[in-house]
Amino acid sequence: MNIINSEKLFEQSENFKNSTPFKFAFCQNILNNDKYEKLLTEFPNLENFHNNPDMSKNQLLLDWNEPDKDPHKTVFPGTNNLFSNAWNEFKLFSESEECLKMFRDFSGVPVNKLKHFRFISYKNGGFQLPHAHNVGPSTLNVFFYFSPGWKHGEAGGTYMASEEDETKIIFEPYDLDNSMALFLDGPNSWHGTRMITNNKERKAVQLILESWSEKDGWSGDSQ
Which of 50, 104, 197, 222 is deepest in the core (most CB within 10 A)? Predict the structure, then answer.
């Protein structure tokens, strides 16, 4: 569908495979410009998101499965007329074999199905403490950013940390304009978002790609 800039993606393949203490990477200019501009213009209004505050986070969520509003429910296939044509096209691409093969080849992780598709955003005061999901051995967490105007050093990007401690950040992205961060899920894949202190809106989409089979279900079901 000519959505992802595969050249920019594969430039980071070796970085992903060789990163420590867990596999992660960051890609800039990841979506083809015309597609990105359309998605940015038609990003859902944050007024339609629901807040999800607790002691560990303060974030805004909008799941593709709305109005179910269950972030743990596997995303349903196909389109949703709550979202624009551009976003429906991006969703269809995300669950396509073309996209899944691209990420398999990039990462070496045998993902073969889209598990979750959700919008995750933050406003002033938004944050998420470092955490690790450890959902399964064949799970990629992918974040596409739609937030122009971020400055170097400003909180908002999904950081990677060596421990469950915000002082142990090993990488934090600051270019949130048409960029992507991803990591391989695992017991030590610590990540989070520092508290935003500006008046900007951090807009992103999270995809979770995972290995799935008719016999065994998701790769993490037995964990």
Answer: 104
